[in-house]
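Let us practice reading a record.
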Amino acid sequence: MTTEGNDQSSEEPGFTFNDKRRVDPDTGELRPETDAQSASAEAGAQSAGAPDAPGAGEQNAGAADEDLADASDLGVDIPADASTLNDTEAAQDGAEPEPEPGSEAAAHLADLKRVNAEYAAYRMRADRERERAATGGVIKTVEALIPVLDEVKLAQENGDVSGPFETHVKKLVDSLTKVGIEQYGEVGDEFDPHLHEALMQQPSDEVETPTVFVVMQPGYRLGDRIIRAARVGVQQPED
């Protein structure tokens, strides 16, 4: 039994190992077998692409015919002269030509320009109306607050506004300033009938032009628009 087992094991094929590494691990140099394989591969590639190979011209011509056939099957027209292709591309990239006068396209283009101009004018009118409405709302609010502001001004002159009340008054005036409301009217200002309302006048040899000497109620304006003229007393120069 032992002898038969040994005979069977001797008849089995042995294991072999082929070292295919390109670099010799002992010397670190390129093995000559690798150089030979590379040279043979390059030679095969050159022979395959050589124009003198038999049947190469026929194969190339057949491939070109197949490409043309495929293009025609897809419905692509291949012009005999391709020099006009660049002109076509340039025309597509540039602006489209104007339609001929009197044509239907020219009429549609004129209508489009007219509608565009009307829309631009409408937007301008809408912006003006929106701005006018916002200004009107601010003016109405200030007109409603003017009696309160007059009372506050009178209390300040009498010294009744102090402590936390003074802080609240300052916040009220600052809030009006943020929305564009300006309070004006100071002693010494030159009298302007467009800005001031003279409630009293008196002659004086100390002024050369009509001058405000007392402010009874300050004026309020929003930009160039007067909400209420300042009510003042004016000194007139003596003749």
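A brief commentary: The beta strands are 181-184, 196-204, 211-217, 219-222, 225-228, 230-237.
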